Amino acid sequence: MKNRINPEVCLVCMPFSSIVRPSIALGLLQGHLDKANISCKTKYANIQFAENIGLKYYTMIGSLAPSDFFLADWMFNKFIFSSEVSDTEDYITRIYESFIIQAYPTMNYNECKNLLLGLKEKSSRFIEDLAIQIIEEKYRIIGSTSSFHQHLASISLFKKIKELDQSITTILGGANCEGKMGLTTHKSYPWVDYVVSGEADEFFTSLISNILNGLEYKNLENSSAVLTPEIRLNNYQEIEAENMFVVSKNLDDLPYSNFDDYFIDLKKSNLSEIVKPALLLESSRGCWWGQKHKCTFCGLNHPKAHYRKKSPDRLLAELDFLEKKYSVSMFEMTDNILSMEYFKEVIPRLNNKEKSRYFFYETKSNLNESHIREMKDAGITWVQPGIESLNTKILKLMNKGVMAWQNIKTLKLARSYGIRLSWNFLWGFPKEDDKWYEEVSEWLPLIEHLQPPSSFLQIRIHRHSTYFNNKEDYNLNLKYLPAFKYVFGLDEVSLIDASYTFKPEGWADPVWDFNDNQYKERPSTSKVGKLIIDWQRSFMKFQLPVLSISEKNEKIEVLDTRKCSYEIQYKIQDLEKDVYISCERMDFKKNIYSEFINKGIDLLEIDLIVETLKKKKLILEIDDRLIALGLRGEIPHLPSRNDFPGGGINQSVIELKNNKTIWEIEETKNEYLSKITSTKLCPTRAHK
Ligand code: SF4
């Protein structure tokens, strides 16, 4: 560590970012400043705040409340926005009726209102105290990163700091500051001196040096990625919001993240004994798939943010360095999508024979058995494969580049190798057909033994997505989300410009509008939604449903505990067994038929066998292929939620009020999600 005495720069990690892992954005920026020998402290205000209001409420607001309410931002808007407009009965009633009453059934409206207003008061006091603390520590520059619901916490803090000391410079960056959203932030909140849009790696040090030396900062050529006080004075002349973005050319040039202050702040906190920390690490930025065929719903990655990845040696050296320095072997990889080249270059080298390491990665879903086996051997125990749907026509509509049979294969392989998946089933795509959901509902119960989706989610329209960019073609008149106006205190135009998520006019918002018309009008999605709830419930039981097969003495023994099972235990043999084994290749039906016809078997006989296997629900015909559904051999346990490689709360230590553990709160969340999925079909957790 360099220059830890009297640092002049303070980077602040504001609520409600997770307390179980450090911020990679701030860790990297601190790494850049270390290299330039500029003293810096990263302050984990999120840990202080979680301690202040209690982990139960931190989790409730930051993770459990539907994101469409912006409740985390609302907590911090007292210094920005009039409470008469913000703290209305309308806003609080909707939160109560859509969320609180389902998650905490014994709480009445007045208790809910008092709780929320009380927490908001505490949040405001926290901001005032934090501002005083920062002033007393005599920093000259305060920087913060804003993604998800961290925006108003940072903006409020900056306002209070400026009220106490005008000479301190404030800088805001992060995903919420990209392009037009950043421009709106800079225009709307004049106490934010600088807004950075995009990846600051290549200029952050010179920006900080210039400010410390009292020099004006000039933007890089062809980019106005930094909005400065001078630009504000010049009334934003020649600023093109869409051009406001820079990317780092070579990820190998980045410093290693400096997470020292996270561990220092965590150690000082009384939450340290219950937090199981993990580290964030990035091997790539951008999306190699989206660069060619962006998924239509995806708002990730500014058009300038092309795909880049670290070289294998560099990535592995960084991994070893961080693991050794912080004695942590759990890594949440921040990549949007795993590089397929890493299967040759990196994954075999992740396998550490002396020590267990655990990784979370996002991948594409076109994985084969050797990919899954190699990932498991390397400690990649948790994967988000971007499954999104189980109907090929819907997958095609969203440009996903995989077919339903491949998604089923991924589900099957992951279950066979004990890899836990995070995935959502999305619905509500413009131009989709009800028939496609009807088709899925006919066979969905057959895969009850594979891992269900976390939720059945109506898509949202995100900035930079194909739907956003081509709204006229899809006939979408986009509006900001209804709760936005209660939270951000902006005029109508700025509300649109500051939004990342939109609701097309005419689309019901099932959470905000308490509107289940969508559900009634669409029996097809309703059917799939109900089947998914059943599937999720089966998967919450102690004994998970099983469809296992084992070959013994020329026969296949079947154990089938699915609700749709033909029998719980039975055997198949002879031609039926041979056809079943051929279906394990998941090949085209015509190829499987040819194989047996070439052996002299009659077509009618094969047809009969295939129909028998279908009746026994052992195979599924989809995308013109025959898919065997049974899992072979011993079926491994799936990692529990407590084993998430991105960190967690130590279940054995924590006891919250009402004798509820944090994981019981998680169960409450699942119950809650099930309830609103069944009645309104749309929990609003963010999808990928
Ligand atoms: S959803 Fe995932 S795979 Fe699709 S474009 Fe976005 S990041 Fe890439």
How are the SSEs ordered, and which strands pair?
Blueprint: E1 9-12, H1 24-35, E2 40-43, H2 45-53, H3 55-64, H4 71-74, H5 83-86, H6 89-103, H7 109-136, E3 141-145, H8 151-164, E4 169-173, H9 179-188, E5 194-196, H10 204-212, E6 226-227, H11 229-233, H12 260-268, E7 275-276, E8 279-281, E9 284-285, H13 288-293, E10 308-309, H14 312-326, E11 330-333, H15 342-345, H16 347-350, E12 358-362, H17 369-378, E13 380-384, H18 392-397, H19 404-417, E14 420-421, E15 424-427, H20 434-443, E16 455-458, E17 461-462, H21 466-469, E18 478-480, H22 484-487, H23 492-498, E19 501-504, H24 517-521, H25 523-540, E20 547-552, E21 555-560, E22 569-573, H26 574-583, H27 589-597, H28 603-615, E23 619-622, E24 625-628, E25 631-632, E26 648-649, H29 662-680
Parallel strand pairs: 1-2, 1-3, 3-4, 4-5, 8-11, 11-12, 12-13, 13-14, 15-16, 20-25
Antiparallel strand pairs: 5-6, 7-26, 9-10, 17-19, 18-19, 20-21, 21-22, 23-24
Would you kindly provide a written description of the structure presented here, covering whatever features stand out?
- The longest helix has 28 residues, at 109-136.
- Helix 2 (45-53) packs antiparallel against helix 7, helix 7 packs across helix 8 (151-164) and helix 17 runs parallel beside helix 19 (404-417).
- The model is unreliable at 654-688 (pLDDT under 50).
- 42% of the residues lie in helices and 14% in strands.
- It is α/β, with parallel strands linked by helices.
- 46% of the residues are buried.
- It folds into three domains: 9-253; 276-459 and 524-541 and 666-680, TIM Barrel, CATH 3.20.20.70; 547-632, Orthogonal Bundle (Arc Repressor Mutant, subunit A), CATH 1.10.10.
- The strands form eight sheets. Strands 2-1-3-4-5-6 form a six-stranded mixed β-sheet, with helices on both faces.
- It binds iron/sulfur cluster.
- Iron/sulfur cluster binds next to helix 13.
